[in-house]
Design goal:
By secondary structure, the protein is an alpha/beta fold. The chain is about 35% helix and about 25% strand. It contains 21 helices and 27 strands. Helix 13 packs parallel to helix 16. It is elongated. The protein starts with 10 loop residues before the first strand and ends in a 7-residue tail after the last strand.
Length: about 550
């Protein structure tokens, strides 16, 4: 046999969603494992779930209960879970009680009973619950026998080709116990109350023969049993973002898409920021509707209102999102428990994205998202949000996130510090006081690697959706909230039309421009822009850069009395 040949270790699937991933593929067959943790952390349920996933009539699971878990009590409560099949009890899953042997205080009798049952039915799985109870009454006077008992039990079960699980209530200070040394694998379960929430986690402390996923992973006990949400994310070998080319995800609002240089680059993370009431949800809904019009599917994650309320509000904007949901083109996820984890959220998102083949995700809003998290996870919100957005955008999904900001007169406060770092693109909404009224304006603050307009434009939310109005080119100090009129080129120079003046202002501001630059900034029809530039050249306001490609124009300084 080659010196490089390795013994193949088969892995047993656990039947616990998410557990195989953090174990490195499953439980090594014929291994000796410890499932440890405090009272009520889910140790028995986890072990039973693994047993039912692997037991067959030919190779059954043998479950030993002790004083703390009598058979009747175990059966009564465990059968409430979906994985528990009463018809398989006594056939594929067999339960025996060791209370009599334990009460006698003789470790040899305990071991003899376990060995006799194993030899009689040749099980694939053996579990002892609670293993800690076996030693509880004899730890002091028989301490020297415990190490020997552990070694004998591990050797007996392993040589009989049994995968075994010992369940025990231990704390971190007890990790010097002999069982931790002998065990091939150790799963550590914890639960911690934090204000009004309860957070459960699992850690692979030890796993021989595999490369387990490090760290603590969120788990939840549901009607189906245990579900685990791995904290590390699988990313595609070839990220979809690198393959997307020049694809754009549009809003279906022509003026806004033009401001964005043709739409949002597919696979970007976009933040739509603004104070309350500025229409962030309306923009997000319009983004979903346009996706459907382009043959795309979307997932909408809402925190601040129930799905039905969200769908009804979309109807007031003339958008029938309910029809998209009914047709399987959109899905509204409502996640509002106060002990939510980011990993659970990511799991729900990824499942929905895969089922729908979605290419758009709307999170409305990040503020509501953070409040829905258990306090434990809010402390790491920045890092967790980064993991979530990275995982989703890596698969080519365009993510639009809304976030509420505070309006501060004279100060541009765009986003909370924990959000702005992950945004590829930022669209800012804000209020301004203009002509005795409150108006709403928007601007594109940031777009990585993409040309976009830097102008502000008015907009309005109506029963027909979002309506984009005029450029705010006639005003300065827009960010202050109280804009003031500014002098325009058409006012300084006689003979220029309003459109020619606007185009000249754009060229003066940008210094050197291409036709695409002017089109993006002015949002005017192509022919009108070309006509305006031609006349500005004829009047010597603008000159053509001789060698520039593509064709480029620059403004020419004119005498004061021109």
């Amino acid at each position: 046999m080659s010196s490089k040949a390795r013994v193949k270790i088969d892995l047993l699937p656990t039947g616990v969603p998410g557990l195989d991933r953090i174990l490195g593929g499953g439980i090594p067959q014929f291994s000796f494992n410890l499932i440890a943790g405090g009272v009520g952390t889910g140790k028995t349920t986890l072990t039973q779930q693994i047993a039912f996933a692997n037991a067959t009539p030919e190779r059954p699971a043998l479950f030993f209960t002790v004083l703390g878990e009598p058979t009747v009590k175990l059966m009564r409560y465990q059968q409430q879970f979906d994985f528990f099949d009463v018809a398989r009890i006594g056939n594929a899953v067999r339960v025996h009680n060791l209370s009599r042997e334990v009460m006698r205080g003789d470790l040899d009798q305990v071991l003899a009973r376990i060995v006799a049952e194993v030899d009689a039915i040749e099980p694939a799985i053996v579990a002892v619950d609670s293993f800690r109870t076996v030693f509880a009454a004899m730890q002091t006077e028989h301490g020297s026998q415990v190490d020997e008992f552990m070694q004998r039990l591990a050797l007996t079960l392993t040589t009989r080709e049994v995968t075994s699980f010992l369940i025990g209530e231990y704390n971190e200070q007890e990790m010097r116990n002999p069982v931790f040394t002998v065990a091939d694998g150790i799963l550590w379960l914890t639960q911690s109350p934090d204000r009004n929430s309860m957070v459960r986690k699992v850690q692979v402390v030890k796993q021989r023969g595999t490369a387990p996923m490090p760290g603590m992973h969120t788990m939840r006990i549901t009607d189906g049993g245990i579900q685990i949400f791995p904290r590390m994310i699988e990313t595609p070998k070839e990220p979809a973002r690198s393959r997307r080319g020049a694809a754009r995800a549009c809003f279906g609002i022509p003026e806004l898409d033009q401001m964005l240089g043709g739409g949002i680059p597919a696979g970007d993370a976009v933040v739509l920021a603004g104070p309350t009431g500025t229409g962030k949800t309306a923009f997000g809904t319009r983004f979903v509707a346009e996706g459907a019009a382009q043959g795309e599917s979307s997932v909408i994650l809402v925190f601040e209102e129930r799905p039905q309320d969200y769908l009804e509000r979309a109807g007031t904007l003339g958008l029938d999102i309910q029809a998209l949901v009914d047709a399987g083109r959109a899905r509204v996820l409502y996640l509002r428990p106060l002990d939510l984890s980011v990993d659970e959220t990511l799991h729900e998102i990824r499942e929905s994205v895969q089922e729908l083949g979605a290419t758009r995700l709307v999170i409305d809003s990040l503020s509501g998202f953070e409040l829905a998290l258990a306090p434990t996870f809010r402390e790491d919100f920045r890092e967790s949000l980064y993991r979530l957005v990275t995982a989703v955008t890596a698969s080519g999904v365009t993510v639009l996130m809304t976030v509420e900001t505070l309006t501060s007169s004279g100060d541009l406060r765009l986003l909370p510090g924990q959000v702005s770092f992950l945004a590829d693109d930022i669209i800012m909404l804000r209020y301004v006081e203009l002509e005795g009224g409150l108006r709403t304006v928007l601007g594109i603050v940031k777009m990585r690697g993409s040309r976009h307009t830097r102008n502000f434009r008015e907009y309005e939310i109506t029963g027909r959706g979002v309506s984009i109005g005029r450029h705010m080119r006639d005003y300065d100090d827009i960010l202050s909230g109280t804009p003031r009129p500014q002098p325009r080129a058409r006012d300084r120079y006689d003979g220029l039309t309003a459109r020619e003046g606007d185009v000249l202002d754009t060229i003066v501001r940008l210094r050197r421009v291409t036709l695409d630059d002017v089109l993006a900034e002015s949002a005017l029809p192509r022919k009108e822009v070309m006509d305006a530039i031609a006349r500005l050249v004829a009047l010597s306001f603008v000159a053509v850069e001789a060698k520039a490609r593509p064709k480029t124009w620059r403004a020419i300084a004119r005498p004061e009395n021109a």
